[in-house]
Design goal:
alpha+beta, single chain, 119 residues, elongated
C-alpha cells in the first residue's frame, strides 16, 4: 500500500518600509493531519522569525528584495517505513532567496541545533 502524500505550498510575502517589515505567511492544501498541521504552523512562525532576525543579511545577499518579496515553497510529506514523517522539496535555481529559505526549512525539519543561531 502506498503512503498518502500531502503537498503543501507555503507562501511568504514580505512588505518593507524604512521602518518596518510586514511578513505574511499562508499555506495552500486540503485537509492535513493534526500533527502535520502543527508542524506547518510551527514552520510558518519559524520562517517569520528567521526573516525578521536575518533581514539585513538577506537584503545584502539579495538586493532585489529591498522593497519586499513573495516566495512560494512546496513541500511533499509522507510517512516513511518507520511511521515518521518524511519531507521533500527542491528549488530550480541554487543561489536564490528561495534556496536560502529552503535551507532554513531543512534545519527546521531535521531539528538541527544550528537553526538556533539564526533565530
Amino acid at each position: 500500500m502506498m503512503a498518502k502524500t500531502y503537498s503543501i505550498t507555503l507562501r511568504i510575502k514580505v512588505s518593507c518600509t524604512e521602518e518596518d517589515l510586514e511578513i505574511k505567511t499562508a499555506f495552500e492544501n486540503g485537509v492535513l493531519t493534526q500533527d502535520l498541521q502543527s508542524t506547518v504552523d510551527e514552520l510558518m512562525v519559524t520562517l517569520v522569525a528567521f526573516i525578521q532576525k536575518n533581514w539585513w543579511f538577506l537584503e545584502s545577499r539579495y538586493p532585489e528584495i529591498s522593497q519586499g518579496f513573495e516566495e512560494a515553497l512546496t513541500f511533499f510529506f509522507a510517512k516513511d517505513e518507520e511511521g515518521d514523517w518524511a519531507v521533500k522539496s527542491s528549488v530550480s535555481e541554487p543561489e536564490t532567496l528561495a534556496a536560502t529559505l529552503l535551507g532554513m526549512t531543512k534545519l527546521f525539519f531535521t531539528g538541527d541545533p544550528a537553526l538556533d543561531e539564526f533565530l
